[in-house]
Structure prediction request, 348 residues.
Amino acid sequence: MHSHSVAVPVGAVDTGGAAMPTSRVSRVSPLWDQHCCLPLVCDADVGQLARYADASVEPVGAFVSVNVGYAPHSAADVRRLVAAFTGAVAADDRLCLAADVAAVATARARGQVAVAFDLEDSGLLGGDLDNLRAFYDLGVRTLVPTYNSRNAAGCGCTDARDDGLTDYGRALVREMNDVGMVVDGSHCSARTGLDLCECSRRPVIYSHSCMRGLWEHERNITDEQARACAATGGVVGITGVGVFLGPNDASLPALLRHVEYAVELLGPEHVGLASDYPFDVTDFNAELAANPHLFPDSYTRWGPIEFAPPERLLAVGDALFERGYPADAVAAICGGNFERVARQCWAS
Ligand SMILES: [Zn+2]
Prediction:
């Protein structure tokens, strides 16, 4: 999308001339954050997720996918975390666990934040693909087959040798397609990501990955990966991590630079947002220190990592609007595109 034609302010708020915080497009483009990170402990403050409901004019609901485990975790760890998070979401009337896309819409209409879960790495399946359905039933809607380093499914983005997806990885993708779980190439190697797109029968996403054409980092994806994802009907979620966006720059302009690059490359219908926000940055840095083999120098060389909080993601819509993006493109980027993928992938 390179159009800078004059946009029609659909959903513009009539303030009656009074000075009010502007949130012109948030009402027509509720945010869908395809990946965020609560501390992976059972007593995490799940109420932090209510920050996604844009209250600048009136509460506008949202969707957020919450990570419930990655490579170091076992299936039992994930079950404990899911049980804890599910209980906390149910007990908070600002939040709602959404099993399907209709439930997301219902929650948003009430001004609530709809929640689903995601997993990073397939190792915690223990090689048993039946676990996919069990996790789906617990609310897991997205899974990254390989987190940074080689596993039974494929290669990770930090591996020196890239052999792509394995036979087991292909079986995993087929089962994910059947179960209704979204296939996510973030953290995978380039070849593995391309193989995912080649073998999935449903759209493949990069839930939280920035553009390598703008900033060299192993977690960022090449134009070729992004194009292959778009060709499946998928979406690339630009993420608010400073070391992925640039030299530890998590500012709104840095986010917009990657969004606009991706839109130029793929069109507005294949770009989305995913904060990757760790709600406890101290906990994140402790996690980083505890697992140095999972985080190379490209994460740590800038000092403490900067992150774009939910409030900054909520500002992306208005910023794009001000840059002349049409309201429908803004709505698609802020959430409509990932919602479309959910409709095409999740079991109804
Ligand atoms: Zn991640």
User: Anything to note?
Assistant: The radius of gyration is 19 Å. The longest helix spans residues 327-345. The chain has 13 helices and nine strands.
